[in-house]
Amino acid sequence: MAKPNYSFEKRQRELAKKKKKEEKLKDKAGRKAGGETGPEDGQPPEQDASVTPPSET
Fold first, then answer.
1. What is the distance between the alpha carbons of residues 37 and 27, in angstroms, rounded to a whole number?
2. Cα angle at 50 between 45 and 52, to 5 degrees?
3. What are phi and psi for residue 19, nearest 5 degrees?
4. Residue 57 carries which DSSP code?
5. Predicted local confidence at residue 24, as pLDDT
6. Are the beta carbons of 38 and 46 closer than 8 angstroms?
7. How confident is the model at residue 53, as a pLDDT?
8. Of 2, 24, 22, which is closest to residue 14 (Cα–Cα)?
9. CB 12, CB 18: distance < 8 Å
10. How many helices and strands, by DSSP H and E, does the chain display?
């Protein structure tokens, strides 16, 4: 039986972490440059009705 190559597996994990980190930095820079937007669809976050103060009557 072949001996597992743990160095290869470790390198693959490191590459995946690096790619994910770069994507996060890119997204963060895009949000900072483009202004604040909501989740992935680019719409501003929705306000919950319970958060807004009650209207005076």
1. 11
2. 70
3. -65, -45
4. -
5. 97
6. yes
7. 61
8. 22
9. no
10. 1, 0
Number of residues written out for the chain: 57
> From the centroid of its chain, how far is CA 47?
21
- The tokens for 11 are 């390198």
- Kindly report, residue by residue over 1-57, the tens digit of the pLDDT: 889 899 999 999 999 999 999 999 999 999 988 875 555 655 555 656 555 666 666
The three-point CA angle 47-50-55 to 5° equals: 95
38 token code pair: 């909501």
What is the pTM assigned to this prediction? Answer: 0.49
Q: Please report the pLDDT score of residue 1 as a whole number.
A: 85
E strand intervals along the chain: none
Residues 31/37, Cβ–Cβ less than 8 Å: yes
